[in-house]
Amino acid sequence: xxxxxxxxxxxxxxxxxxxxxxxxxxxLGYAASFxxxxxxxxxxxxxxxxxxxxxxxxxxxxxxxxxxMGERELALKLYRKALEVDPGFTNAADNIEKILKDGGQxx
Length: 107
Prior knowledge:
This protein is mainly alpha-helical. Helices cover about 75% and strands about 0% of the residues.
C-alpha cells in the first residue's frame, strides 16, 4: 500500500497539483486549530513539512501553531527553517524578530 508521500511524489513534476495539495493540507491544519484541536493541527502541519519540505510556507504554518502552543524555541527553529528554504520569506523573518523582541506573545 502506497504512503501519502509516495502518492504525492507521483506528481512531483506538476506544481499545480503540488500547490493544491499543500494548500489543502495547510487549510486542514488551520481548521483544526480554529476548532481548538491544537494537537491535531500540529500533527497535520508537521506532516505538511514532510510532504513539502521545500515550501517555506509549510514551515511557517507549523511554526505558527507551535508558537501558539507556547513552544517558543521550536517556533524559532521552524521559522529559521522557512528562511533557509526561502530567504525572502518575510513572514518568517518578521515573526523571528517579534519572538526575539517580545518573547513571542500571541494576540
